Write the structure tokens for this entry.
Amino acid sequence: MPTLSSSGFRISKDQLIVAVPVAVVAAAGGFFLSSYLTGRSCKKGQVNTCVCKDSPKVVHSFDMEDIGTKAVYCRCWKSKKFPYCDGAHAKHNEETGDNVGPLIIKKRDA
């Protein structure tokens, strides 16, 4: 049992041998728990990893008249046919637990 003396707590060698590994395990457990919980929340980082990286901003513009009856656009930045969706979000969602899908624009029936 630690004792209180005029200079503060005194810990025996046997108590120190037990306390240090317990403290190390507790610190490591706290670190890993924190890393796990942080990994489950949104992180700051790049969304676009490969599309038009030489451009300061990726912008695509389309005229409504040119769309036809339906257009499907990528929102996961993984499509090989960007800005159009090629279904790459399915693999991305499976690997990351995300739920991203395409933007679908359709003309309303008149």
